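note to self — DONT lose this again. spent like an hour looking for the file last time. sequence + predicted structure for the chain T wanted, 144 res
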Amino acid sequence: MASASRRFFQRLRLWHGGPMALLIGTALVAAGLLQTTTATQTLGCPTGTVLIAKFDFGHNRYEFDKPDGNENVVRITNGSAHGGDWQSTMPVAAIVVKGGPAAVVTWFDPPQTTGEFSGGNLPPVGAGNTPDISNVQFCGQDST
């Protein structure tokens, strides 16, 4: 009988180790997901591209921010906190639209000199609302 009790308790200890490992693993995964989804890093131009123009949205319009010397390369028309139309004197390979804690990259292949951008693909925030665009970056192909 003592042998049967011992086997039972050994099995019980093994069984407790499985759920404990599952709980620890779940906690680690949850912590990793929380950090990934709450990161608020500012996304720049993607690898393989260079910044042509960055505009911040404020006072109901897009205002050129950088880089110096490129003030007249990209022009935004019909701009709102939800998107706008654009023209560029340099081909645009990607547009980075930032709003809330996230950013969305749209690629153009081949690069374009006209188009439109939207914040419609930004992940919802709060009660499921699409955030307003805070800035938009136009990126050209890196020729180096």
